[in-house]
Amino acid sequence: MTDQLKKYLFEDHSVRVQTVRLHETWLQAQEHHQYPPAVQKLLGELVAAAALLAANIKFEGSLVLQIQGAGPIALLIVECQSDLSLRATVKIREGHEMPTDGTMQSLLNADDQGRFIVVLDPRRKVPGQQAYQGIVPLEGDTVAEALQHYMKASEQLDTRLWLQADAQHAAGLLIQRLPDHGGSTQGDAASDTMHRAITLADTLKSDELLTTDIDTLIHRLYWEETLIAFEPATVRWYCPCTRERVASMLRSLGEVEINDILAEQGRVQITCDFCGKPYEFDPVDCSGLFAAAKPMPEQDPPTVH
Length: 305
Ligand SMILES: [Zn+2]
Fold this sequence. Notes:
The chain is α+β, with helices and mostly antiparallel strands. It contains 10 helices and 13 strands.
């Protein structure tokens, strides 16, 4: 069963509802990492939020959500492409161990230095175009609150989020008021729809998003409403790191540097920054890196005296 994201629209076209419940994707995100529950919760919620927001971007490219601060955790980062492939990781502050417990505020907002950052990066930019970056102070006790604060501060669509994560699942529900133009309902009626959508979502119990499949959840919340359902989209884990990419990075370091590492450590070990996948190159692998780059004998014949 693949991980899916589903979108619905209230009948009057004024409010959008989206749900996501990730299992495989979330397990893969943790494959090479050991996150304690408090960190799992924060990163998993950010992963669910990134999928929900990326599902609405109108360009081909990526959406990045980052929480960075001065606590024991330096950075939580999720990168989600417009095709809903994503990767995510946690960076611990130098000199700190992975914290075993804590809240978003205690782990990331020491000295009020915490920031919530959103980057939208179209793949094909027109000349001079840069990625869009929005930064707000880290406010609230949860990832959902921090993100709602960001949406409000940057004057985006009125958005509410419910996010949950544990070791097995990362799940989220997004409710968003759509602009009046284009919809059949204006003003007060649309506000009523938004209010109803939120009130019903607020009846969710603490672990209901984690334990309930999407269809059951939507039926449970909105069985009295008429929702227009869209084709589900697949969410998947994808980290572009490969042994070949690591090899070309090592090649760019140069033979002298690589030989220094070999002399010191006997082999070269590289861990992907994002997924944590380990790559190891022994002395034979390393000499192979540079053998191919050397000129072929035919191209550089030995001089005969
Ligand atoms: Zn990787």
